[in-house]
């Protein structure tokens, strides 16, 4: 099942040279592997372990979360605006599910 | 026990209480609530190949955490690094008392050296932001958050 991902840029139209935030929210249980169900069995770990951020096809940043990250995680990065373009965010979890989102960077 | 003896005895007790802080090891004096270096050490060795003593507390790293979190399932944090982005290789977050203390590694690359996200916390603990620089230094900022309900079990 694909992971649902949303990406957002704040402020939406930064000026060239300004620092803006790229926020990525994924819908994911992020099971840490330490919790138990009603029968007392361990729930196996199930978490996003890689987030790659591409800008115009170039990999610009990567986040490698461990089980300690909260459910439905938010990943917040900051970039300096240079040129307009498109961010592509690719996610992968430890069971092989993937998710993708893209957001356009427009300059004011 | 007459009053004189009682007074003498209580002076002894009070003096003893004042002496106690000297018995606490140096690292714990003025230490953070929920600090647990013994538990953090293996995680640091595994992730960075370095121990706690190799981390340099630095003013250029800023870790913003709430002082009290009602739920450990969702504790927001912000790391800001006051260095040029070319000098920063990666940002890590560690929570001392979590079952697995290493929470996240961010390879900042072209991004500014800053990161904001949310972490789980099993219990009241010290939290460390560790910044790997390009020249191999490890800079650290510490904070502590009191957790009312844990988020790992």
UniProtKB/TrEMBL annotation, chain A:
Membrane-crossing segments per the record: none
Domain Sulphur oxidation protein SoxZ: 11-103
Pfam family, one: SoxZ
Gene3D superfamilies in UniProt: Immunoglobulins
The protein's name: Thiosulfate oxidation carrier complex protein SoxZ
Lineage: Bacteria, Thermotogati, Deinococcota, Deinococci, Thermales
Automatic annotation (TrEMBL), chain B:
Residue ranges occupied by any Ig-like SoxY domain in the UniProt entry: 53-152
Alphabetical list of Gene3D superfamilies matching this protein: SoxY domain
InterPro entries: SoxY, SoxY_sf, Sulphur_oxidation_SoxY, TAT_signal
Pfam families per record: SoxY
Protein's name according to its UniProt entry: Thiosulfate oxidation carrier protein SoxY
Source species of the chain: Meiothermus granaticius NBRC 107808
Lineage, highest ranks first: Bacteria, Thermotogati, Deinococcota, Deinococci, Thermales
């Amino acid at each position: 099942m694909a992971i649902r991902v949303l990406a957002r840029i704040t402020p939406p139209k930064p000026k060239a040279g300004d620092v803006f935030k790229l926020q990525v929210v994924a819908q994911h249980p992020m099971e840490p592997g330490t919790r138990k169900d009603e029968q007392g069995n361990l729930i196996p770990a199930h978490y996003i372990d890689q987030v790659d951020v591409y800008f115009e096809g170039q990999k610009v940043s990567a986040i490698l979360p461990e089980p300690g990250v909260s459910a439905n995680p938010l990943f917040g990065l900051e970039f300096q605006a240079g040129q307009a373009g498109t961010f592509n965010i690719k996610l992968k979890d430890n069971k092989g599910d993937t998710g993708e989102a893209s957001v356009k960077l427009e300059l004011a | 026990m007459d009053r004189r003896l009682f007074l003498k005895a209580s002076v002894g007790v009070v003096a003893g209480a004042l002496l106690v802080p000297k018995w606490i090891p140096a690292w714990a004096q003025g230490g953070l609530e929920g600090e647990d270096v013994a538990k953090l050490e293996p995680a640091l060795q595994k992730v960075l190949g370095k121990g706690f003593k190799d981390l340099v507390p630095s003013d250029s790293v800023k870790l913003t955490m709430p002082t009290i979190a009602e739920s450990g399932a969702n504790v927001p944090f912000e790391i800001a690094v006051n260095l040029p982005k070319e000098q920063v290789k990666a940002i890590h977050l560690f929570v001392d008392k979590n079952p697995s203390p290493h929470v996240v590694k961010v390879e900042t690359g072209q991004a500014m050296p800053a990161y904001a996200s949310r972490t789980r916390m099993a219990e009241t603990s010290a939290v460390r932001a560790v910044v790997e620089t390009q020249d191999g230094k490890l800079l650290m900022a510490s904070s502590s958050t009191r957790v009312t309900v844990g988020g790992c079990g």
